[in-house]
Amino acid sequence: MFNLNLGEEELLRVKQEIQEFIKKEISNAGVEGAVLGLSGGIDSALTAKLAVEALGSKNVKVMLMPERGVTSEQDIKDAVELARTLGVDNSIIEINSIFSSFKKAFPFSDFEPGNRNFALANLKPRVRMCLLYMAANMKKLLVLGTGNKTELLLGYFTKYGDGGVDLLPIGGLYKAQVKALAEHIELPKSFIEKPPSAGLWVGQTDEAEIGVDYKTIDIILYDHIELELPEEEIVKKLDVTPEEVRRVLSLIAESKHKRILPKIKEFT
């Protein structure tokens, strides 16, 4: 078990282990390389740079899949510039027309009353997942996910959307560790300093949607998962409220189904 706050030696080791992981899994799969979605956020930027350092720029493909009118121009600009700096092939596919086609085809009236906004928000990452696997199938690649451990534990991802991937290179790192590693490998500050957002609607941020800031979430998760402390001890030990701890632990419990494979009815 390593510390939540990583020193320079630990960060170097983590970087090397992630790169070896990527190389090994790509080799074991017998594929030509990797593809990932580049959003303009810190997680995908970090994953892209680690993948390029592991595989070489010729063996990594990135896809920018903005939603016109929702994805910020700054995110698109940052993603394009990073792809250029890394020397990787990139494709830009606006998802608006694909998203609209689903909306037109789906018989919403057959499922009313229902949470239409929730369903449509989750449709966006599922559209992006389909596009990534189109590229993966075309070029014999594995899809790299960009989720971190904090998001995975909270279930802050879309099942068979951004959670539909082949590998999760930074899935073992908490959000604070992602930021530390991004600084260690000298990602541009524009990625490190911008508020984390899934970009599902205009002005959306992760922390506002979750209801707890990432710094607080990470220390609660670390004490609960790594140190195996019960709720009461976490509240006593940390400068957090019982409500914040309950919120985080409830998200873990409610999203358990997202982290396991579908159950199979076995016969004897």
The secondary structure category is alpha/beta
* N- and C-termini, Cα separation: 39 Å
Q: What share of the residues does DSSP label as strand, in percent? A: 5-15%
User: Which second-level CATH architecture of the largest domain applies?
Assistant: 3-Layer(aba) Sandwich
Overall geometry comes to globular
Give the tally of β-strands: 4
Point out poorly predicted stretches.
none
Walk me through this protein's architecture:
With 268 residues, the protein is α/β, with parallel strands linked by helices. It has 2 domains: 8-210, HUPs (Rossmann fold), CATH 3.40.50; 211-258. The chain has 12 helices and 4 strands. A 4-stranded parallel beta sheet has the order 3-2-1-4, sandwiched between helices. β2 (60-64), α3 and β3 (89-92) form a beta-alpha-beta unit. α1 crosses α2 (42-55) and α10 (214-226) crosses α12 (242-254). The radius of gyration is 19 Å and the shape is globular. The protein starts with 7 loop residues before the first helix and ends in a 14-residue tail after the last helix. The mean pLDDT is 95.
Offer a few descriptive terms:
four-stranded parallel beta sheet; globular; 2 domains; Rossmann fold; alpha/beta; 268 residues
